[in-house]
Design the sequence.
């Protein structure tokens, strides 16, 4: 990958995480930030060895990739601001790739606001901050194979990258986009159970987190179905099946499914 100018509009957690990943991936990437909070943009840029653009317009003028790392409710205003620049660049055949991570905003809706520019719709999650993210994306036909490969190379510095048809992205938002929050609640609940049984709090949190980490690795590295791995732990008449019975009595699986569905439906509503 040659030297590439990447402009990130929004210096919050997800924008910072993906820019950090792009820097760690190497390949001559120059990172620039803009944000309404100038100090936040400056801090993010300084931390990563990047630079601050003076405005969103400048980002649109100079970026090869323009990441839209703002909340869905703010995106309309940002797109209105940069649309004239993007249309000029499209006429000059120097159009950048727009990379949006705003939940609910379809590729068609973004292109309706700024023109038929190359658009990638992205759904990352917060573990990207430690290069353990799940990053799922869909691309418009205007994004070339070369640009897609270049973008994937950048994103891999933040975690696992997978391309999917856009029709699945709202569901992805409910699953892996919102999923870390559900996992943190489960880890906290496991730790609370340990504390209730007498384990000191610091150890209970560490044991719970490592247990979830190891269990996830078992699924990914063995390729076995979670149900099969669950059965490996459940001895007849033993402690684990007693615990599983309590989870089933509390409708644990159904509640988790409802959480993903609620997040998915909210993503659809935001669109």
Sequence:
């Amino acid at each position: 990958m040659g030297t590439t100018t990447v402009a990130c509009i929004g210096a919050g957690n997800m924008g910072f995480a993906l820019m950090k990943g792009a820097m760690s991936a190497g390949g001559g990437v120059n990172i620039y930030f803009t944000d309404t909070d100038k100090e936040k943009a400056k801090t993010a840029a300084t931390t990563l060895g990047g630079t601050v653009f003076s405005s969103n317009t400048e980002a649109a003028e100079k970026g090869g990739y323009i990441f839209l790392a703002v909340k869905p409710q703010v995106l309309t205003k940002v797109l209105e601001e940069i649309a004239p620049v993007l249309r000029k660049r499209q006429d000059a055949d120097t159009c950048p790739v727009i990379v949006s991570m705003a939940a609910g905003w379809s590729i068609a809706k973004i292109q309706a606001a700024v023109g038929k520019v190359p658009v990638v719709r992205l759904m990352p999650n917060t573990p990207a901050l430690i290069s353990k993210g799940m990053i799922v994306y869909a691309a418009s036909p205007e994004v070339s194979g070369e640009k897609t490969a270049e973008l994937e190379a950048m994103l891999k510095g933040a975690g696992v990258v997978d391309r999917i048809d856009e029709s699945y992205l709202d569901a992805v938002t409910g699953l892996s986009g919102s999923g870390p929050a559900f996992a943190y609640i489960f880890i906290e609940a496991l730790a609370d159970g340990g504390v209730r049984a007498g384990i000191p709090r610091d150890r209970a949190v560490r044991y719970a987190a490592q247990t979830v980490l190891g269990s996830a690795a078992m699924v990914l590295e063995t390729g076995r179905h979670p149900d099969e791995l669950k059965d490996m732990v459940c001895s007849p008449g033993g402690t684990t099946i007693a615990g599983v019975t309590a989870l089933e009595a509390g409708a644990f699986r159904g509640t988790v499914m409802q959480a993903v569905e609620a997040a998915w439906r909210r993503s659809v509503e935001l669109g």
Remarks:
- The two ends are 34 Å apart (CA to CA).
- Residues 13 and 126 are 7 Å apart (CA to CA).
- The chain has twelve helices and eight strands.
